[in-house]
Request: fold
Amino acid sequence: MIELDGLTKHFGRKVAVDHLSFRVRPGMVTGFLGPNGAGKSTTMRMMLDLDNPTSGSVRIDGRHYHELQEPLKHIGALLDAKAMHGGRSAYNNLLCLARSNRIPASRVSQVLDTVGLSAVAKKKSKGFSLGMGQRLGIAAALLGDPEILMFDEPVNGLDPEGIHWIRNLMKSLAADGRTIFVSSHLMSEMALTADHLIVIGQGRLLADTSMADFIHENSRSYVRVRSPEQERLRDALHGAGVVVVEAGNGSLEIDGGTTERIGELAAGQGIVLHELSAQRASLEDAFMQMTAGSVEYHAHSDRDGAAPPSVGPHWGEAWDGRTGSGSPDDTKGV
Ligand SMILES: Nc1ncnc2c1ncn2[C@@H]1O[C@H](COP(=O)(O)OP(=O)(O)OP(=O)(O)O)[C@@H](O)[C@H]1O
Reply:
């Protein structure tokens, strides 16, 4: 279990992480989401004692990171795959880590095998592709066979087979009862992998909820129906007290209805249907909806001279009246 209590990080006047409190529980994959610059990497770095919190604390199985003896046996992490020593072979990189944590050398070959790098174990890691580097970083995370694993953008640079592999790896580690905490901007992938979500925006907690509840609460689900007898269908639905919206593309949309009810109403009137489908919002839709007010870095098109999309009140402002914390000299991710 990872426990954050009031975790806060200031970089000068910039508030990167703002009083974050949450638990990352064992036995499931917890996804960590937030727009660019939301504070995800800074939070993960503080979890590993790589950055000092301005205030608040992180506990790993009840202890501060610096209190852990041989920390790789408690928590393994992939933060920056390029952090390996490029002049060393994959094997030697891992061997150095293993020695510093009193992990037997035999474990190095095991994890290289797990991540599919046995054939290049003796090659210098500076020649590795992005995907191979990610695999080596994942091998390092697994080295101490820890109960807690943290991955920052683990699918970055992986091909579809690699993405499939890391997804199954994370799920099976969680099924073993381990604590898995993973950040990713790939929403479709996160939707397939995570059971629970922590969402932050501008350093603050926006959601701590199950995947299903997050999608349900932050997006619209509706039934779409098309018929060659649209007028009759609309009248039949109105007559039954069903609220219908004209979608403008020849279809009708019904919020809160079920396909069973709509289908039975149409059948009762002998109305032919060409489409009857439940439309469920994706994680991406729900994420965009929730974080719209806390996106710091917007792209906008110059082609049509349009103004950049208007940014609503920052989520934090709507919430507690404080002003946003964006710094004018930030240049990241424009
Ligand atoms: N060393 C630093 N010095 C100053 N500001 C920093 C530093 N590290 C991060 N920041 C700022 O803190 C904020 C949070 O950054 P962080 O990298 O944690 O966000 P993130 O959610 O991981 O973003 P991304 O999804 O783009 O990787 C950003 O505004 C960033 O510019």
